[in-house]
Amino acid sequence: MYEKIKGLHDKRKLLERIEKKLAKLQTDNVADVVRDYRHNPKGIPIVIRGYNGAKIADLRRVYTEQAETLIEDITVAENLISAIPDERERLVLQMRYIDNMKIGEIALELEVSDRTIQSIISKYKQ
Fold it and tell me: How far apart are CA 28 and CA 51, in angstroms?
């Protein structure tokens, strides 16, 4: 179980960044420089601007695959945490792996010792 929930917060942040990249693909354009040799033997540089459809399609495919994998991993991890029957243990794991809180912060929030939080977390690392 621990392997599936560890890094959950980081996966959510990565998914957020990938979604931003996907949105940005709509506005990315590509520029290229070519030379026009029709009127000058040295060639006159001409800048061509536009969208590189093939590049954008490839990036969109890669980002979409990454996002789908992350969504699956996040869903599995969140379902594992929500299936924990003990409410306090479930809350500790949510605070630790979803909210990315430190052990001391969780202990203060729940008004228990750091050792109690640590023992709950270590119970699920096995």
Answer: 7
Q: pLDDT per residue over 44-75, tens digit each?
A: 888 776 666 777 788 888 989 999 999 999 99
Structure token digits, residue 22: 């996907």
Distance CA(58)–CA(94), nearest Å, equals 36
Choice between 11 and 2, residue whose per-residue pLDDT is larger: 11
Residue 88 near residue 110 (C-beta atoms within 8 A): yes
Q: Are 86 and 110 in contact (CB under 8 A)?
A: no
Written as six digits, the tokens of 49 are 């601007």
Per-residue confidence band for 29, with pLDDT thresholds at 50, 70 and 90: low
Element spanning 11, H or E: helix 8-24
The DSSP-derived string for 33-92 is EEEE-SS-TT-EEEEEEE--HHHHHHHHHHHHHHHHHHHHHHHHHHHHHHT-S-HHHHHH
Residues whose CB falls within 8 Å of the CB of residue 122, separated by 6 or more in sequence, listed in order: none
**Contact of 97 with 81, CB cutoff 8 Å:** yes
